[in-house]
Amino acid sequence: MPSTEQLSASFRDPSGFLFSRAGILYRQINRAYSNDYARLMDSGLYERLVKVGLLIPHVESDQAPADAQRDAAFKIIQPERVPFISYPYEWSFSQLKDAALATLSIEKRALKLGMSLKDASAYNIQFVRGKATLIDTLSFEIYQEGKPWTAYKQFCQHFLAPLALMAYRDVRLSQLLRVYIDGVPLDLASELLPAKTKFNFGLLTHIHIHAGAQKRYSDKTVAPRSGGMSMQALTGLIESLEATVKKLSWKPAGTEWGDYYENTNYTDSAFEHKKQLVKDWSAERKPKLVWDLGGNTGVFSREAASSGAFTVSFDIDPAAVEQNYRTVKAKKEANILPLVLDLTNPSPSLGWDNRERDSFGARGPVDMALALAVIHHLAISNNVPLPQLADFFADRCRSLVIEFVPKSDSQVQKLLASREDIFPNYTREGFERAFSARFNIHKNEVVRESERVLYFMEAR
Amino acid sequence: MHFSPLPYLDPGSGSMIIQLAIAAILGLGVAIRASWGSIKKLFGVKPKPEEEESDSDNA
Questions:
Q1: In sequence order, which ranges of A69-227 are alpha helices (DSSP H)?
Q2: B6: which chain A residues are within 8 Å (Cβ-Cβ)?
Q3: Is B11's Cβ below 8 Å from some Cβ in A?
Q4: Sheet containing A397-404: which strands, arranged edge to edge?
Q5: Is the dihedral of CA A342, A346, A352, A356 positive or negative?
Q6: pLDDT digits (tens, 9 = 90+) for A68-108
């Protein structure tokens, strides 16, 4: 039998877990969860949620259970594979907001059919066909009359607190999710939020008063019991969370917003030429998965995606990623995923035993990567020597489309204006020498009306 | 009454208590809204057809 590996991200919930066998992902459902699973499938909830793209579809499988928990097994299901797993600290404001609203929408639909979400983890949401989708089929439980919402605290920590901090304080505070794996502690959120948020009923109750209550009862035990949590009260709670989230908004300030590509130093003709080259080379290579590293608002990601590839468009700027995501939504694009990522300090592996959330590198390598107008930032602003850059890209992708921006380029001159030029090897020849050590350079073209060169290469 | 089985996540004592308090108030709103139609009817206002949650509200 092919080897079976339990996935390290799904060990917490006794209802079941994920494992992979021969490259296919399965979810084992344990007997303890059989009644809840039956209700999910029989009530019509599964069908309704899948129909509107709120829940990942699955098929029941006749695979043998995972060896480790053979006796607990009730059923094995095979969920649809998500093209790229992303994490909340890589999402823009609207992505986290949509993930929050999807969670609440699922809970409302579940309540109507006698079920409820037993957890509300942001890590259970992934972007599938451009939409926030629940990927944990085992998140539902049969609703018990009078029972409070077990996931309330988790929802506030994973969604409401970071969204409020991003909207009211600074959008970069989404990075707190990278430090706190179970969401932003509410006392911290309460402290960091401006005082005016106490005049917002939702934030006052769900964050400030909530944080106070957590502190007051921190050393007392209260068994989860019926305290008059009627269905009406529960509905009121979910609707209040929904209204609070809906009211939170963030618009990138400053002149950059909306005209990124007007701040470039090359002509329309050069821009179009670059687009054409990316399109042609992608069509030639036919990659399944592309990473656009430094993708900005996703113009070139879309050229790569036109070959049919699923393209993840990474950028360090949350405003560019926000705009990219809004385009995905407006145009209903199914194969573009914009994400926030700092290439000089990419997402690490996190969580228990550093195995719960994969690092950026561990989620590769991919068929093809684009690195357009980015090398001068890495080589000059971040002082990474060219051979190390070649190693980095060769470990991440099989084919690479990379743009060399020479020192004479005004953008590079800007980077060098205020510092010593300690980069004698940063030349076209030096670049080709360094990258030839790890790649076969197939093509290179000088971008029309510019000094920049676009390369198409294959990792050795 | 206690619920079984206990949740696998710790819902947190403070979170549980505050949730019950907040929800009690918010539930009142839901109750009033639910009976709003009949209140309006008392004053001779015709009820509008009830709105169903749209199937594409994943926004």
A1: 93-112, 152-155, 161-168, 176-179, 186-192, 201-203, 210-216
A2: 224
A3: yes
A4: A336-340, A310-315, A289-293, A366-371, A397-404, A453-459, A439-446
A5: positive
A6: 778 889 999 999 999 999 999 999 999 999 999 999 999 99
- The 10 Å Cβ neighbour count of residue A374 is 22
Structure tokens at A97: 């907001």
- Residue A90's nearest CA partner among A294, A295, A321, A290 is A321
Output the DSSP codes for A361-391.
GGG--EEEEEE-S-HHIIIIIS---HHHHHH
Beta-carbon separation of B13 and A220 below 8 A: yes
* Structure token digits, residue A391: 């190693």
Q: Could you count the other beta carbons within 10 Å of the beta carbon of residue A368?
A: 26
Q: Is A76:A28 a contact under the CB 8 Å cutoff?
A: yes
CA distance A188 to A165: 10
A444: closest CA of chain B, how far (Å): 43
Q: Do A218 and B30 touch (CB under 8 A)?
A: no
B contacts of A151 (beta carbons < 8 Å): 9, 11
- Which tens digit of pLDDT belongs to each residue from A284-332? 999 999 999 999 999 999 999 999 999 999 999 999 999 999 999 999 9
Q: How confident is the model at residue A396 (pLDDT cuts 50, 70, 90)?
A: very high
For A420-457, what is each residue's pLDDT tens digit? 898 999 999 999 999 999 999 999 999 999 999 999 99
Minimum distance, in Å, between the CA of residue B46 and any CA atom of chain A: 25
Cβ contact B57–A218 (<8 Å): no
Core vs surface per residue A201-222: b (16+ CB within 10 A) or e:
ebbbbbbbbbbebbeebeeeee
Smallest Cβ–Cβ distance between B27 and the set A206, A221, A236 belongs to: A236
Instruction: Say whether pTM exceeds 0.90.
Output: yes
CB contact under 8 A, B26 and A240: yes
pLDDT at A80: 97
